[in-house]
Write a structure and sequence with these properties.
The chain is of the alpha/beta class. The chain folds into two domains: 30 residues; 156 residues, Glutaredoxin (3-Layer(aba) Sandwich). The strands form two sheets. Strands 1-8-7-2-3-4 form a six-stranded mixed β-sheet. The longest helix is centred in the N-terminal third of the chain and has 22 residues. The termini are far apart.
């Protein structure tokens, strides 16, 4: 009886803490699925081309149950952007699995849209990037070929002298109307 009561108390505490972590930020942001911030990013591979706005997604090549639906939705959204917006906005897929074939992330990203970039990072660089973006990932306990991972998308902007993480979107399906408004706001700055 004491063990059951203790287990229930622990479970209740975990649920309460989880609710605080998820619900409390909504009082300071525009919603549970979007966080607005201005965090400077100094990572060299981010925003290092002609595009001044990037959408980042961390996942792994071949991920069918998490990455594929999200990248499909990103591809549909990106294809719906007008040409002038597409010239300024890029989508990058960063592979957390460090595959043996370094071309796999690019091929996986291009499967969804030819304009998408797939990025391979070695272990040390990958851990630096995942710490900065606070990405959780680990080998799945149920299938050693899969990873459990964060599935947020990140919206970044490059200005003349800095790179900033501006928005994080965490709930799927993503609110692409809001993401489009955020992109237009960044373009108009």
């Amino acid at each position: 009886m004491k063990n059951k009561l203790g287990a229930i108390l622990i479970l209740t505490s975990i649920v309460a803490i989880s609710i605080l972590i998820v619900v409390l930020p909504t009082f300071f942001t525009k919603g549970i699925s979007r966080v607005s911030l201005n965090k400077e990013i100094t990572l060299p591979l981010i925003l290092n081309d002609e595009k001044d706005i990037k959408i980042l997604f961390f996942g792994y090549s071949g991920c069918s149950d998490v990455c594929t639906p999200r990248l499909n939705s990103l591809a549909a959204f990106y294809s719906g952007l007008d040409e002038s917006t597409q010239k300024r906005v890029g989508v990058e897929f960063i592979d957390i699995s460090m595959p043996f074939d370094k071309t796999l992330p690019q091929r996986f990203a291009e499967y969804f849209n030819k304009e998408f970039k797939g990025i391979y990072l070695d272990k040390k660089v990958l851990y630096t990037y995942t710490r900065v973006f606070e990405i959780y990932f680990s080998k799945s306990l149920l299938d050693e070929m899969k990873y459990d991972h964060t599935s947020n998308i990140y919206l970044l902007k490059k200005s003349s002298n800095k790179k900033e993480l501006r928005f994080i979107y965490s709930s799927f399906p993503y609110d692409f109307k809001q993401i489009n408004r955020d992109i237009q706001e960044l373009i108009d700055e």
